[in-house]
Amino acid sequence: MTTGLVMADYIFILLAVSGLAFVAELMGSAFIYVKYLCAVYLVWLGITLSFSKSSTSNPTIQKSHSSDILAGLLLTLSNPKAILFYVALFPAFVNVVSVTLFDLMVILLCATLAFGSVNLGYSYLASKAGAKVKTSSSFGIIQKVAGAIMASAGISVAVKA
């Protein structure tokens, strides 16, 4: 998922550096569709999680890496604050007129290290916490509550979109 989050940041950085603010404005209407897609995805994940059978004997879950990357990409692309940051504030810190290819690579590397490392840290902590919770006798209840929260978040995103 971190890969998808960083990929979306790359898209925003490339838009900001290339000075294509008008493209970002055109994408504004597309964000509504991305938000609804993300909302439906969250509701679906929440319902699936809530109604899945809890199993403390085999807590491993097989997931597709490509769906995780897509989820991270859609999550960041649907965040209007991210595009506003990159398009409005980013040029205030970087002279986008004189950015060379080397400068762009350094900017992307900095974004990868800054955002990627933080998100990987969150992923690591969540993984460790998840391993502890999965061995708990109350895993089924936690799973249903987490599913309800996820579905509620999806409904909230849809209502606010």
Alpha carbon gap, first and last residue: 23 Å
Overall average pLDDT: 78
Structural class given helices, strands, pairing?
mainly alpha
What is the tally of helical segments?
A: 6
Shape summary: globular
**Element order, helices and strands?**
HHHHHH
How many strands in all? 0
Q: What labels would you give this structure?
A:
161 residues, mainly alpha
Characterize the structure shown.
This protein is an all-alpha fold and 161 residues long. 81% of the residues lie in helices and 0% in strands. The protein is built from six helices and no strands. Helix 1 crosses helix 4 and helix 1 packs antiparallel against helix 5. The two termini are 23 Å apart.
Layout of helices and strands, plus pairs?
Blueprint: H1 2-17, H2 21-51, H3 65-77, H4 80-93, H5 101-134, H6 139-160
Characterize this entry briefly:
The chain is built from six helices and no strands.
